[in-house]
Amino acid sequence: MSNKKISQLTNTLNLTDSDEFAVVNGGETKAVTFSYLKRNFPNSYGSADTGNLYLVPETIVGAAAGSTNLDTAPYNQCGIIYLTWGGGVVGVHNLTLPDATNLSNTYRLIRFTCDNTVDANNEFYLTPKAGQTLDGSASAFQIDRNYEGIMVWSDGSNWIRIQTKS
Question: 61 exposed, middle or buried (CB, 10 Å; 0-12, 13-18, 19+)?
Answer without folding.
Answer: middle
